[in-house]
Design a protein that fits this description.
Length: 132
């Protein structure tokens, strides 16, 4: 009876640690980047993909994002957004210390999030220097 009780307890512990940690594998590999612009007719490029402004674009959550926006007569807008380890990634580390399986989640994009997901693009007019 005691052996059966130990097997059941250990089985429950293994199930709980396996399914309560390592959640990053089940998160989406992309994250939505929201774009907003003050001017009309702005062309926005996010990691080489063209996007409408205002609009949304899905990007990988585990890589940095490069945003470029331009419109004729305005200075080009540049912005870089990095990613960081999110709460799921931290729980994968904690779970990995208890039970090695959750460490697998750290290799998935779900363990990371973009530092910023709402981008407001405000372009400034180019200043022309007159030659006399």
């Amino acid at each position: 009876m005691k052996l059966l009780k130990n097997v059941v307890v250990w089985g429950l512990m293994v199930c709980l640690t396996t399914f309560s940690f390592g959640c990053s594998c089940f998160r989406s590999s992309t994250q939505t980047l929201n774009l907003a612009c003050d001017q009309e007719g702005v062309l926005v490029h996010v990691n080489g993909q063209q996007a409408a402004c205002p609009g949304q674009i899905a990007v990988r959550r585990d890589n940095g994002v490069s945003v470029t926006a331009n419109r004729e007569g305005y200075k080009t807008y540049y912005r870089s957004i990095d990613s960081h380890m999110n709460g799921s990634g931290v729980w994968d580390i904690v779970g990995g210390v208890v039970w090695l399986v959750p460490f697998v989640g750290l290799a998935s994009p779900g363990a990371y999030s973009l530092d910023e997901t709402n981008i407001h693009i405000d372009l400034f007019p180019e200043t022309r220097v007159s030659q006399n």
